[in-house]
Amino acid sequence: MKNLKIFFSVVIITLFFSSCANVYRLKLSSPKEIKSSQKFTVTVTEKDKKPIDSIRYYLDGNKLNSNIDIDASKLRLGSHAISATIFYADKQKKLTNTIVFLADNPPQIYTYSIVNEYPHDEKAFTQGLEYHNGFLYESTGQNGKSSLRKVEITTGKVLQKIDIDKKYFGEGMTIFNDEIFMLTWQNKIGFVFNLDTFKKERTFNYAQSIQGWGLTHDDKNLIKSDGTEKLWFLNPKTGAEEFFIETYTTDRAIDELNELEYLNGVIYANVWQRNSIIMVNPKTGALEGIADLKGLQKKSGQKGSEKVLNGIAYDAENDRLFVTGKNWNKLFEIKLQKKQ
């Protein structure tokens, strides 16, 4: 009986050491944040320095040729997944970290001058604004008060208007291929209207983004904000959200992006409750400029955090930039200048 106990002890000890030998304590190391122009290295270590057969590294699911000197300069800013598949002792394990790419340079600061002032409907809770063939097209919000309208610039007169069903809170709009695209806030549905008649032709859904806020286009894609730092690029034929960029400066994300305008290859955006316009690189998401439009809200007869700047429209032929806000009684034509 004594010999049997010894035998069992030997077996238990052997199993214990065998089990310990197969336990690998692996760690994936990578920067948490880094400027997009900086190269970086990813490493995998085993705490007890046990042998590793091989490692495969991935960035957003795409295999990397090496784990050293990874170049992110051509990638969008924001969150990315760094992962490694480790092969060891006839086993494999996948580890994943998140890395945030930041903008390389601080934004250029702009000031403004007023070129012209025009009347604007003070009852219009402006959500979207666009210039087209000599007129402004505007979408307004709030349940029971949402509308789509065509406006004469110099007088502010509403020439054409339809009311949106009261169950919808209207949001941003844009004109693309002679159609008007308009968002709703929380219903995850957008409308497409005939440019001439304002007759609703079809709808589209947005399932990935959180909400509908601002809308513009780059002559190929619709570009949509959803209240976060993300800008979504939509297929104009189907409304499908195909990809997004994230808006970042040198140290943080810029969220609550609202009304949008695509201007000379740059996305101009209002930020909710801010009387400023930011300028975003449409390829990377880098914040490239900020225009401080402080003072316009007071000139428009409004104050407070809700009735702020919201509405950007650009006349490319005559190089005219128009801005207004929620319930403002004025539309401003302005010029932006880089601050020295």
Rg, Cα atoms, Å: 27 Å
Strand count:
27
Order of helices and strands: HEEEEEEEEEEEEEEEEEEEEEEEEHEEE
CATH architecture of the largest domain: 6 Propeller
Residue ranges: pLDDT <50 for 5 or more in a row? Answer: 1-18
> Helix amount, in percent?
under 10%
Write down the overall geometry: elongated
The largest β sheet comes out as: 8 strands, mixed
Rounded mean pLDDT score:
89
Straight-line N-to-C gap: 94 Å
Structural class: mainly beta
Under CATH at level 1, the class of the largest domain stands as Mainly Beta
CATH level 3 topology of the largest domain: Neuraminidase
**CATH-level-4 superfamily name of the largest domain:** TolB, C-terminal domain
- What fraction strand? over 45%
Strand order of the largest sheet: 21-22-23-24-8-27-26-25
What tags apply to this protein structure?
340 residues, mainly beta, Immunoglobulin-like, Neuraminidase, eight-stranded mixed sheet, five-stranded mixed sheet, 27 strands
Task: Note down, in words, how this protein is organized.
- This protein is mostly beta strands.
- It has two domains: 25-102, Immunoglobulin-like (Sandwich), CATH 2.60.40; 108-338, TolB, C-terminal domain (Neuraminidase, 6 Propeller), CATH 2.120.10.
- It is built from two helices and 27 strands.
- It has helices at 2-22, 296-299; strands at 26-29, 33-35, 43-46, 54-59, 62-63, 78-88, 91-102, 108-119, 126-132, 135-140, 147-151, 158-163, 170-176, 179-184, 189-194, 200-205, 215-217, 222-225, 230-234, 241-246, 257-263, 266-271, 276-280, 287-292, 309-315, 320-325, 330-338.
- An eight-stranded mixed beta sheet has the order 21-22-23-24-8-27-26-25. A five-stranded mixed beta sheet has the order 2-7-6-4-5, with no helix packed on it.
- Strand 10 and strand 11 form a beta hairpin.
- The model is unreliable at 1-18 (pLDDT under 50).
